[in-house]
Every structure is written in C-alpha cells, then in structure tokens.
C-alpha cells in the first residue's frame, strides 16, 4: 500500500494539473462548439470530472482528506443536476421533437 | 520482510507479459478464425437468433418514458451510497453521534422515497 | 443554523402537505415558516458568531442580514403567488417547496465559511430554479428558458469547481480563514494556480450574477420564465449571488486587490453599457426589466471594485432598493398582462386614470430604479458611487452617471405611458395580497429614501 502511494506521488503534480486542464478545456470547447444538447451535457460532465481528478491529486499532494470529501459532494450534486437536466431535455423534446440547440430561438430581442 | 514489501518497476514485468499474451490471444483468434473459417451467408445465419421466435422490428426504437423516470430515480438514490462508504469505514471512530447523523441522512432520503411512492412515480401503468 | 434547518424542514413539510391534498394550507404554512425563520435570525442577532460544524458556516452580521433580506423577499414573492400557479399546474405544492429549497440554497450562499458550502449552496439554489423556470410544461418559452438556464448554470458550475480546485491546490484548504491565512502569510510566493483560481471564480460568479460578458442567458431566461419565477431570480438569487461574491472576496482576496480589481473594473463598465444600451431599444417591459437587471448587476459590482469596510453596507442598501422596486415592476406586469394579454409598453397606456394607486406604486418603483432622489434607489446609487470616488476612480463614476442618465430614459417610458398617453380601458382588479405587497414595497422604498440611516448601520 505504502509503495503505491509513493509511486503515485512520484508523478509530478504539474502533470496532473496539465492533464486536468486539458480535459477541462475539451469540456469547455465541447459546450461551445457542439449543438446537440445531450453532447453538451456530456461535455459539462467532462468538466466536472476533470475537477474531481484534480481535487484528488491535490488531496494526495497535500496529504489532506478534505479534497476527496469534496469529490463526493461534486459527484452527488452532479447526479442531481443531470437528473433535472435530462428531465428538462425530455420535456423540450416532447414539445419540439428536437434536441438541437439551434431549435431554441424563440426568445429574441 | 521489508524488502519483500517494496516493489520496483521490474516486478511488474510478468504482469505486462500476461497482459500482452491475453490481448494477443484474443486478437489472434479473431483474426485467424476470420481468415481460415468457412463463410456461409444465408438469411437464417445472418438474422438475429431469438430462440426460434420471429424477429420483429428494430432494436433501436424509442422505449417507454417510464423507464427514464425509474432510471433517473435509481441514479439519484444510488449515488447517495457514496456518503455511506466513508462513514462505514470510520464507523467505530464516529461512535453514537455518527450513527445518529447517518440515520438523519437516511431519514431524509426515506422521506424523498415515500414522496416518490405516493406520487406514483414508480407505478408502471 | 436553526434557521436553515427550519427552512429545509419547512420545504419538506410543504411537499407532504401537497401530497395529502391540503392545498389551502400551503400558503399559510409557508408564510408562517418563513416568519419563524426571520424570528430565529432575530434571536441570533448580536451574539458573537463562531464558525459552526467544523467551520462550514458562519452566521455573522453579514450573513444574518442578507439571509433576512432573502427570506423577506421570498415572503413577498409568495404573497404574489396566491392563485398564480393554480392555473398553470396541478402541482402547486411542488412549486412552493422548490421555492423554499431554492431559498435554503441562497441562505447557504450568503453564510458560507467553507468553499464546499459555497458550491453546495449555489447548486441547491440553482437546481431548484432550473425546474421552476420550466414549470409550464407545454409553454415553449418556458421550456426554452429552463433549458438555457440549466445549460448555462451547469457550465458556470464547472468553472466554479475548477476555480475552487485551484484555490485548494495552492492553499491546501477549503476553509476561508485558512485561505486568508495563506494569502496574508505569503505576500510574495503566491502560486500562479491561486491567481487562475480567482479568475475562474470571477467568471462563474459573474455568470450567476448576470454580469457582462457572461450575461447573455439573462434576458432570455427572465423573459421565458413565468413572471413570478423571474421575480425570484431577479431579486433573491441576485442578492445571494452578490452577497456570496462579496463575502468571498472580502474575506480572502483583499490583499491581492491589484490583481483582480482591473478585471472587475472592465467587467463593470461593459455590464453597465450592455445592460443600458440594450434596455433602451426594448419594446417589451419584461425584457426591458431583464436588461435593466443586468445594468443593476453592474452597479452592484461597484461595491466589489471599491472593496472595503463599507462595501457590505452599500450592497445591502442597493440590493434592498433594487429588489423592492423589481418586485413592484414585475408584479404589476403580472396584473397588466392578465388584463391586456400584452407585455409591451403600450399595455400601460392610460393606467393612471383607472388605477391611480397602482400607477403611483409603479411610478415610485421606476423612479427608484432610475435613481431619483427621495427614493431608496438614489441613496443606493449614491453609496455605490461615493465608495468608488473614495478610491479616486473618477472615470468609472463619470461612466456610471452617463449610464444612470440612460436608465432614466427607459424607466420614464413606463411612467409616460401610464400618465400621459390617454386610453380608454377598464380598471385592473388588484387583489388583496398584491395591494399589501405593493404598498409595503413602495412605502419601504420611500422611507429608505428619506431615512437611509435605518439600514446603513446594520452590518
């Protein structure tokens, strides 16, 4: 057990930061570029999960459990958010028969 | 004893070999059977096998929206288990107050569950 | 803490009342519970505040005052909601319960002492509102508002979390006191991660506040949601967002002022101009109020640009004045829309003849939003501007005064329509609860305009 932790700590923190930033950026770009609502939601999940990974890495780095506890809260609340989001998408789909974000253009001005 | 617990990267070489062999066997058999196996293409052989029952329609069709509600409700209650896991690991240290706090948490979840049942969200018809 | 527990239990109680068909009891029980919450806060007032639950929440004067403002605004919104939702949805209890859950989140946001609580509070507040925005299931506009609000909310949550993660990485703690300790004790060696974290937090909080350049969801969502939900979003949520923003920056980031003040300064100026310039060209009162709420977010950001001991007071005053006037503005719009079916400026034509008292209340609200003396809005703007002037940011004040002048233009369009455009119309029926709310809001607006000292010494 000890050695595994040591091995993980052997990976420099910068690698984690860089890696998580890249995943986060992919998520951000996904939200901005994609037009399918479901895929946008998946991109948002990608953003949240990169944060989870980063928090865990920092948590191990600092030797402090608070970061990992925070990850639990992110998971629970992300699940709640996705549940509500999917319900909203189903509602919109029933009315417009589309999950394309460009269909949302009724409010203008 | 100490030296046995410490492991170096070299100690993982057998696992690496095992991985290569396992993956190689899988990929290899697929390729070889594809190359040397006999090819018979009839309608019966290409159709999906449904225990002798005639295949009807496409599998990729819309399914009941009720399934969605049940699935979402399952996910919400399922995810709450992650709060129980760390609690269970440290159960002895938390003592009685930890037990009470977890019961409060479970009680709130139970209230939500009763609400769902009363709203008839889990009834299929 | 007892207040937060009361609020959450109240929401669950209301949910179950709906289950057992006790429809008539919903509103009285909710109001009673909210009043009890205010009383509980009143009991807490003046005691020395300690961080509770391993430093998760802190009920200092700041938290108590802003919580009470949020609760009172919710009481006003609930009073307006009598009979409003019976028509659109059979599930009225859920509507009340979700509003109360959202309020619980808002209260958490204003009293957090740990970044985890900030995150959880914002989520509780927003997730309930995603549903409320789309509560009219068959209405396209409501659907669209809900989806847009959800996507933007989830997106900004991602930024918030990444910012929090970076702050944690640099300082090693989520606790505000520990982060402050980190900033104060390493004046030179602050990690670049920390700066990036501050920027990401600014982005996400600006999203929630509806400040430019992250405002683009605001007009659509405010326009598409049912008007009552719009009132809640424009008052309670905005109050909580600016209070949380201020709390975080006042607690932790003051020593790094040189870094983030220029960023916020630019954002403030953009927000003011975007909000006011687009509000001028609107034809619908609802959209005009939505854009004007963006510009008010800009005025609110002044307090954070000129951060200091008086910031909390000026934000409190401004947010109270703005919220009361917004409640009158949108609330009267509900009545006008019910009577004429239109949200345009023309729908207000000739209102003053038939409904003199209603028109007077609307006029007071518009004057207060525009910042005319003897109303609370003027004192609020004055406090904001003087705070910035004390920091010698004269240019900002000049720009803000230009914007205030633009604001006068479009707020006066409503008054002109009511008083100077004659039209034969039927009198609008104003029911009892609406009268009470309008009277109270207008009265407080005037009283605060004349005796501002009642509110300025609280924090």
Secondary-structure blueprint:
The complex is a heterotrimer of chains A (109), B (125) and C (459).
Chain A: H1 2-10, H2 13-33, H3 37-62, H4 66-96
Chain B: H1 2-5, H2 13-36, H3 43-46, H4 65-79, H5 81-89, H6 91-118
Chain C: H1 2-19, H2 23-44, H3 61-80, H4 92-110, H5 115-133, H6 140-171, H7 176-185, H8 192-209, H9 217-224, H10 227-253, H11 257-280, H12 285-305, H13 311-340, H14 351-354, H15 356-370, H16 376-390, H17 394-420, H18 432-450, H19 453-456
Helix pairs in contact in C: 1-2, 1-4, 2-3, 2-4, 3-4, 3-10, 3-13, 4-5, 4-10, 5-6, 5-10, 6-8, 6-9, 7-10, 8-10, 9-10, 9-12, 10-12, 10-13, 11-12, 11-17, 12-13, 12-16, 12-17, 13-15, 13-16, 13-18, 15-17, 15-18, 16-18
What report would you give on this structure?
The complex is a heterotrimer of chains A (109), B (125) and C (459). Chain A has a single domain (2-103), classed as Helix Hairpins. In chain A, helix 2 packs antiparallel against helix 3 (37-62). Chain A is built from four helices and no strands. Chain A has helices at residues 2-10, 13-33, 37-62, 66-96. Chain A has 109 residues and is mainly alpha-helical. Chain B is mainly α and 125 residues long. Chain B has one domain (2-118): NADH:ubiquinone/plastoquinone oxidoreductase, chain 3 (Methane Monooxygenase Hydroxylase, Chain G, domain 1). Chain B has six helices and no strands. The longest helix of chain B is centred in the last third of the chain and has 28 residues, at 91-118. Chain B is flat, with a radius of gyration of 27 Å. The mean pLDDT of chain B is 82. By secondary structure, chain C is mainly alpha-helical. Chain C has one domain (2-456). In chain C, 77% of the residues lie in helices and 0% in strands. Chain C is built from 19 helices and no strands. In chain C, helix 5 (115-133) runs antiparallel to helix 10 and helix 16 (376-390) crosses helix 18. The longest helix of chain C has 32 residues, at 140-171. Chain C is globular, with a radius of gyration of 21 Å. The model of chain C has no long low-confidence stretch (mean pLDDT 89).
Describe what is shown at a glance:
The complex is a heterotrimer of chains A (109), B (125) and C (459). With 125 residues, chain B is an all-alpha fold. Chain B has one domain (2-118): NADH:ubiquinone/plastoquinone oxidoreductase, chain 3 (Methane Monooxygenase Hydroxylase, Chain G, domain 1), CATH 1.20.58.1610.
């Amino acid at each position: 057990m000890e050695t595994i932790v040591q091995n993980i700590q052997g990976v420099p923190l910068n690698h984690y930061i860089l890696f998580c930033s890249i995943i986060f950026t992919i998520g951000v770009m996904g939200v901005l570029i994609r037009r399918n609502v479901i895929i946008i939601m998946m991109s948002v999940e990608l953003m949240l999960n990169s944060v989870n990974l980063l928090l865990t890495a920092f948590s191990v780095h600092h030797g402090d459990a608070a970061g990992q506890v925070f990850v639990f809260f992110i998971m629970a609340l992300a699940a709640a958010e996705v549940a509500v989001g999917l319900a909203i998408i189903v509602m919109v789909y029933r009315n417009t028969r589309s999950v394309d974000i460009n269909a949302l253009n009724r409010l203008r001005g | 004893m100490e030296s046995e617990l410490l492991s170096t990267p070299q100690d993982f070489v057998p696992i690496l070999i095992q991985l290569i062999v396992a993956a190689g066997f899988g990929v290899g058999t697929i390729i070889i059977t594809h190359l040397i196996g006999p090819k018979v293409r009839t309608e019966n052989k290409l159709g999906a096998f449904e225990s002798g029952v005639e295949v009807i329609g496409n599998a990729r069709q819309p399914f009941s929206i009720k399934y969605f509600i049940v699935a979402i409700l399952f996910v919400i209650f399922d995810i709450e288990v992650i709060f129980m896991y760390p609690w269970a690991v440290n159960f002895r240290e938390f003592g009685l107050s930890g037990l009470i706090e977890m019961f409060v948490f479970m009680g709130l979840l139970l209230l939500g569950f009763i609400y769902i049942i009363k709203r008839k969200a889990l009834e299929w018809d | 803490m007892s207040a937060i527990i009361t609020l959450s239990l109240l929401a669950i109680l209301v949910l179950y009342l709906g289950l057992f068909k006790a429809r008539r009891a919903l509103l009285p029980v909710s109001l009673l519970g909210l009043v009890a919450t205010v009383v509980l806060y009143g009991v807490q007032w003046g005691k020395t505040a300690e961080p509770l639950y391993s430093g998760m929440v802190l009920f200092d004067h700041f938290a108590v005052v802003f919580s009470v403002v949020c609760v009172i605004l919710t009481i006003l919104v609930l009073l307006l909601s009598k009979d409003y939702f019976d028509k659109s949805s059979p599930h009225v209890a859920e509507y009340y319960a979700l509003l109360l859950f959202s309020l619980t989140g808002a209260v958490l946001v204003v009293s957090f002492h740990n970044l985890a609580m900030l995150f959880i509070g914002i989520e509780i507040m927003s997730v309930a509102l995603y549903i409320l925005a789309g509560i009219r299931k068959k209405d396209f506009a409501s659907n669209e508002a809900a989806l847009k609000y959800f996507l933007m909310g989830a997106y900004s949550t991602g930024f918030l979390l990444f910012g929090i993660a970076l702050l944690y990485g640099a300082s090693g703690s989520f606790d505000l006191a520990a982060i402050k300790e980190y900033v104060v004790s390493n004046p030179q060696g602050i990690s670049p991660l920390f700066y990036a974290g501050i920027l990401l937090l600014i982005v996400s909080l600006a999203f929630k506040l509806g400040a430019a350049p992250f405002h683009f969801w605001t007009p659509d969502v405010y326009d598409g949601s049912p008007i009552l939900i719009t009132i809640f979003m424009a008052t309670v949520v905005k109050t909580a967002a600016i209070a949380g923003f201020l709390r975080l920056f006042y607690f932790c980031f003051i020593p790094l002022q040189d870094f983030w003040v220029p960023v916020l300064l630019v954002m403030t100026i953009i927000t003011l101009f975007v909000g006011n310039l687009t509000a001028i060209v609107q034809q619908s009162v609802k959209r005009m109020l939505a854009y004007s709420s963006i510009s008010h977010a800009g005025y609110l950001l002044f307090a954070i640009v000129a951060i200091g001991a008086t910031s909390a007071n000026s934000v409190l005053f401004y947010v109270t004045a703005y919220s009361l006037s917004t409640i009158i503005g949108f609330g009267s719009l509900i009545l006008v829309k019910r009577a004429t079916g239109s949200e345009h400026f023309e729908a207000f034509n000739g209102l003053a003849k038939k409904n003199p008292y209603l028109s007077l209340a609307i006029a007071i609200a518009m004057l207060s939003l525009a910042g005319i003396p003897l109303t609370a809005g003027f004192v609020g703007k004055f406090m904001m501007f003087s705070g910035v002037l004390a920091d010698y940011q004269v240019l900002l004040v000049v720009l803000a005064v230009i914007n205030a002048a633009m604001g006068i233009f479009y707020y006066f369009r409503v008054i002109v329509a009511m008083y100077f455009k004659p039209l034969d119309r039927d009198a609008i029926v104003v029911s009892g609860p609406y009268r009470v709310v309008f009277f109270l809001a207008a009265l407080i607006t005037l009283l605060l305009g004349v005796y501002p000292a009642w509110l300025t010494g609280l924090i």
